[in-house]
Design brief:
homopentamer, alpha/beta, 42% helix, TIM Barrel, eight-stranded parallel barrel, globular
Chain lengths: 297, 297, 297, 297, 297
């Protein structure tokens, strides 16, 4: 078991520390861990994600679920944040997602365009901002450049910066793929090197080795892989993403491994709301039970 | 029947609410619905659209028609707004269209370039601004980036933001096409996620399924489709576009379905003015009769 | 005969109206018509245009010709305006041309880059600014974007904005070509929609129909074509360009047709100065005789 | 023999006139002519240019040579200007070269990126700024746009603007090549149209006619060609570039022809310093003897 | 043996001189030489570089090593600088690396995007900034443009500017390759011409001549090559990079040759930390022994 760094070790400025403290110790399990509800799928995948549970198409339903489920925060794009967060403003931390894209055009050279600002987040009373970085994209030049402005503004306004670090693009496809250990490990490190306070990654799959660098072409257990990823991120906290809806047991297993590895917590969307309201709350309870076992030292 | 959200539920700032109230309750049927007259075809398609009724080439004719017909507003590009709106300034709300393009070059990777500002709209006394977003365009990165500035300025100046959400581009062509249920549904949601106050869509055609996502490859009635689109947009009001001139009965039918689905109203151009002046007014009367049946709750 | 709109009908701000009044009523025929001398060919085509009359290579010669010939204005690029206009500053209105390009590289996707500002024009005492728009260029996105700044600045400083509306680019070539009625008509309208105060077009050739839109694939007389173009531009005044040096009788004929159609006047360069000084002045007299027959109403 | 325009005829603002006067009448031959030493080859070609005379690799050696040789100025990139000009600051005018590139990548679509500002030149006490324009490059759009800022700043700060007008790029290659009369003539005119105060050109070679415009496909003597180029530039002073090291007699001949044609002077680098120190000074003396015969009128 | 220029000869402004003095005379061997520890490999190559010594994945470990080893400075990207430098702030100079990229996508046309600012460096108390320039990249236009801002800001704030001058891109591959004498020599000169205060280069390999310019297609000893490189850089100090971990004896040899040639010192990362902590310190001692023999004159 790796140790999660303490909030006071991170060299954060006062605003970031204040808001992270609020998120980690005044919401969720209140022990320094976190479970977030991301709700950007309507943009990233389109309404098709809501066909499994049509109620989930309604942002009011989701915000209410996040509040009732006792999440540490909810991640919304600017449009939904403007029109739906005010109903519950103050009851749950908002992570304003600053960039996003539809999945309609090719993602061979993806960049997620910035369509909201850190100033928007401040105005809306958000406690953090989110940014999707497509690590390894042939278009990384534009990605890093626009990220720079976000990082600077987040620092200036004292908002913690959560990076969705997604290996993507044709170059990744030929080097093990987006979920390979190599790709996820590199993505976590990249977010840390560039200034993320929290990084969201998919759970690495060490068996995907085709095309990956030689160092990763050995046998690693999932636990070894996630621990390496958390080490690579070091003082950047790690959230494990749920991704597509999957088998509950497998998902809980990954959650446990991530926490054991020193992760900060979880960010689960479709796995949570692509089921009935009550089932969603029940699942969240199970996840929070896991988090409760990993309090801040 | 879905319920249209009330103006006071939308979380709008004071300026947006004031201007939307003026548009929706002091013009048109004055019951919270809307019928708009778009007049950007001279740019978007060229003067050929006026050959069916040469008088319609004259912006004076059109503005007068909008005033006499009791529309909730007229949408003009900056050049015509500067030179023709002042004759009737104050008599009808102006939606200043901030971007636009000719249809001469390829539209495989379309972006509609911004050629006017929200500040121009304020200066001209407009009550709203309009923006065309080509949802799914391979160039969505630039589209979203320029939209961001428009959204921020519209918020800052308190002008409602109407998004022409048009699925377009090579990626859309291969996924069901621009009028498919999949494409229209995703377009409406995208506008909502990114911060539109009102979204203009084409009426979805659920029978166009070739290439669309699996979730849409089932049988849906037109009524089901338009209801889904309105749900996806949620607190972003939906306007159904007339598109090319079509059979009147079919058009009235779509108008009824849209209102039944909880839509805000209609935005009809060529269907209105590609006929004689008197016929135009008669058609508008029919459309307003429909709107009258769907007052704000 | 179509009627040319009056200056007071155009909704112009005070500065634009003041300067247009000076141009139209205190120079040239002084009756609200105009004949301009464009002198940007040294950049647009290179010195080869001066081989027919080597004296015309000297900007001093040309500015003197414009003054002696009693033109309503002369159009110069910034470099020549800086070094040659001061000799005659105040004696003739200057239209500062704000963009331009050489014809050396391919013009498949043309944009005419902006290399001077409206502020330069104000500083030089210019009475108007000129902008070349390549309507239909595959690069129209950049064209419209840079035009936006020019339009805003021209409005802010009160300078009339003259648009050289040139259909160009591979998309135009395949739709009837740059001089087709379809292309010229669309170009005039585009300039009007985007905010030109005056638009300069080539005389349309209705017989060029290959590839043009169906509406234009009929028989139109040149008079019908130019009238349609003037109608499409409406409250944006129309200037007919001389283009390459041509037969004098044909040229005078076009001038007459343009004025009959409600055009504002003429902008003739090579046709004027690719002959001896005295012949130039004689031709100008003939053109001004035509203009004299079309006073402002 | 063409007459060189006088400084007071050029319409320059006070700062430009003051600095040009200092360059032309207080340095070099002090008669209104000029000989400049360009030293940007280390960037433009790399250190290989110094293999013929390794001492020339040291900027100190070159600046000293320029001072001792009595040049009218030395042209340096920002890095060398910062670290080497201060030794001799005030003893010789500095032309700060604002853009430049290595010759490593393809020059099919060249633009010379700006890496220093007019403000840097002011700070360093430079008396002029230099800009390389690749006339005819397929990338001329970016070239003209960045030139605009340079021109505006040079005007604002009163620094004379020297344009290295180089025909370049694939379009030039197919139209006679970079040294053809057509290309050089067009380049000189382009610099003048866009606002250069001084233009540096290669000596035109009228025998290169393959692909050039019809007007240039005749027999011209070198003297006729350079006279035409100077006429095309008109009130923009012309400097003839030395280019690669060549036969001394031929070089002196070109210098004589250029001055006879009304040129301002010479800008010779490799021809000067790719020989021993004493030989360099001897050559400069010969060149200055020529200049002495062409005093300002 | 070439002589290294003295600090007071470089024409630096006060802030740059003050900080360089601190780096060169108050840290390391304190004799005007330098050995730096670069730690940007986590971004540039990914965590795979840490597999040889997993402890090196932890930035705390590396910063401690730099302090204990008595380096003249440590180079970090913004993310690690924010979160790890504060532990040791003031104990060792920080070079904030302002740009960087992952090695996942193709590097045929590389540019290293800027993701931190000189202002960030000032805020963090850094004593210098670092910038990677890919000399010869087909994308050099963007590279030079972004470098310009960095150079200007570094001058304004008085921070020494260290340029990682890396020949890269398809054009370099076909001209001798990134380590050829031709490429390294040109890269060093380019950094000097554009305004670097210190340039970091790989040790040149004069035997790589395929495709290089004629001047370099002769036999040069390594010592001759590195001396030429130092001469090309002249008043820009030269650091020799360690590159991939190599044979110790060969590495020490290169270090000696570099110092003999007048180099400033060394910047060794993987060669240092891809071994045990004690071995790292032992190696650093050997390197510092070499530096001790080359005090500032």
């Amino acid at each position: 078991m790796t140790t999660r760094p303490q909030l006071r070790q991170l060299g954060l400025n006062t605003g970031k520390k204040a808001r992270l403290h609020r998120i980690l110790f005044q919401h969720g399990v209140r022990n320094g861990t976190a479970i977030f509800l991301p709700y950007d799928q309507g943009l990233e995948h389109g309404p098709r994600d809501f066909f499994a549970n049509p109620l989930a198409s309604d942002p009011s339903y989701i915000v209410k679920l996040a509040v009732r489920g006792g999440f540490n925060g909810i991640a919304l794009q600017i449009g939904l944040a403007e029109k739906f967060f005010w109903d519950y403003a103050g009851e749950i931390p908002l992570i304003l997602k600053l960039n996003g894209r539809t999945d309609i055009p090719s993602d061979a050279e993806p960049v997620s365009p910035v369509h909201a600002s850190v100033a928007d987040a401040v105005r809306l009373g958000a406690d953090a901002v989110g940014y999707t970085m497509y690590v390894g994209s042939p278009a990384q030049e534009r990605d890093f450049e626009q990220f720079r402005q976000v990082r600077e503004d987040a620092h200036r306004f004292g908002l913690p910066l959560v990076v969705w670090a997604y290996p993507r693009g044709s170059a990744i496809d030929s080097k093990g793929g987006k979920d390979s250990f190599y790709a996820v490990d590199y993505a976590a490190r990249t977010a840390a090197e560039l200034g993320a306070d929290i990084v969201k990654v998919n759970f690495p799959r060490p068996e995907l080795q085709a095309g990956a660098r030689a160092e990763y072409a050995r046998t690693f257990s999932p636990q070894q892989a996630i621990e390496a990823v958390v080490r690579s991120a070091n003082r950047t906290y790690v959230l494990v993403s749920g991704g597509e809806k999957a088998d509950d047991a497998a998902m809980l297993d990954k959650a446990r491994m991530a926490m054991e590895a020193g992760g900060l917590g979880l960010i689960f969307g479709r796995n949570v709301w692509q089921r009935s309201y009550d089932d969603s709350l029940a699942l969240v309870d199970q996840l929070k039970e896991i988090l409760a076992k990993y309090p801040a030292s």
